Amino acid sequence: MNAPDGAGNAAGAPAGVGRWLRGRAPWPALLAALAVCGLDVARVMANPRAGMDNAVVVRAARALLDGGSPYADKRFLYLPGAVFAALPQTVVDDRVLFHAVPVVTALLVLVGVALSLRIFGIRADSRLAAAVTAGLGVFLPFHGLVHLGNWTVVSAVAFPVALLLILRERWCAAACVIGVAVALKPMLVPLYVLFVLARRWRALAWAVGIPVVVSVLAALAMPRPGLFFTRTLPFLLHGQDDYARPFDASWTTVLPRLGVPHLAALALAAAAAVGVLALARLRWRAGGPERMRLVECASLLMLAAFLVSRPSFLHYMLVVLPALVASVVERGSAARSVWFWLALLPQLIGVRWPYLEGAQRHAFKDIVMITGVAAVLAAQAWRTRSRAAGEVTVSGRVYSLRSGRDPVNHPDRSDCPGRADRSDRSETR
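The structure assignment produced for this chain is given below.
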């Protein structure tokens, strides 16, 4: 059992902070938080480039309707299923899309925040919800995501939905959510490792099978789908072009800009990603409160990809940050570390950093955020490794010596089709 929050905690947070954050916020505070967030959206729409990434997908869908290949445009970087998902937008006037896309993107981010709070049983009208909503309005990754209308927002919603389903032992339903999100934009692929850690092979098959089937069927319905392999993939693997490369915050791109040889930067990034993956496995095996274990392990898996993948943009962090911030109500969470918040500090709008302002050097601030949050979670995973000493592995599953079972791994019930409920027995030595 998790100890009550009112008696203080090992991380030094004030007594009762979790209970206070869960409490209902006054309506004026909620309205003020929404106003701060809404003002940033309005500021985005004052910029003539609002929704530019979404416009690329819509342009690809219109090219398909005109009989061309969506992949003739080198900036269309999504899987084939995204083309058909964007078709409804082709009947909407561009002026309407210009105003609608930032608003819809912001609303979807808020939905993702509400779902992330729900993982820890926090109300959408709580003090923490008000603080997070206001914080988004002064947070550069949110501003960038709304400005671009990037489809990363789909993963920002799918990530907490999948975790909520897993907490309810609905692994296959979670896999379907992840599979649909991957079919649109393959950002949540690192979560496949979560199914491997939990030995949920049927769910993994659903998560892999859905995007494969959707992509194959969509590719067969469009002309020249092979351009994805001959044009799009090489463009991605080479770090895109001179326009996008300065915004890439992955180690493989930023370290060479600091003078590190390319091969050495690639080796360092790969080593860091493997290390974070190993610590994600350690965090999974360490146990502890299931909600916190699931959020921190899943976030580590995503951050491992952000460190090494090309590209890795600042708005990617909106996939994992809402759930991590929500975990602040739990004693001993990584979000209660001052280092977690220091890593986010450079992303506050209005905080100016000498020599790091402007598009060409923004990635140096972004890599601090990604690496800093990953380091805090990695340290948390290392500290919790001692919990695994009170557990024993039987038939590939981890059971507590105190309770005799693991609530997440124990398959008392499953939503996977064709899988009968069963009870597992554990032995303690």
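Interim note for the steering committee: The chain has 18 helices and two strands. Residues 1-15, 392-398, 400-413, 420-429 have pLDDT under 50 and may be disordered.
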